[in-house]
Amino acid sequence: MKTHLLPALKLTALCFMLFVVVYPLSILGIAQLMPNQGNIAFVESQGKMVGVAHIGQRFDQDRYFNGRSSAVDYNAAASGGSNKGTSNPAYLAQVQARIDTFLVHNPAVQRHEIPAELVTASGSGLDPDLSVAAALVQVKRIAHVRKIPVALLEALVQQHVQEPLWGLFGPRHINVLALNIALDKLSTKTLQ
Prior knowledge:
single chain; 192 residues; mainly alpha; 6 helices; 8% strand
């Protein structure tokens, strides 16, 4: 029994040190190198907290840039994907319904111009970002609804493009919440 107990206790102590002390501290150290030091980035507009920069929200009005669909209905407490394969009939019907809805709200867009991310949910169901193409494809709709020149909206989109982390990791993207806040400010200015 002693031959098994001592190695088991040593292994337990080693695992405790690695997984309870070393690993969490190393992740904390890496987080300090990231933008916002790994902390929640609350977003305020006009003195009110309107969201969190890294958690997607529902924007389904024609006057706003729509974000990615959510498999969890934007519930941050229950993030996750649909777990349905690309050949699943229910999934294909859901994607087709999203395509049809998008085309109804964006009549100037052809089916082949719709970026896949606008009709599919992200793995977490809470993706806060869009590609530049996914934002630009919505410009004509928003310009029509808000009575803002297309060129002005295209410039706004370009101003909100975020480059990959350290220029290396990930694609260029746009935070939908930040873009919609800027859109509201732009609309206010153009009405004055």
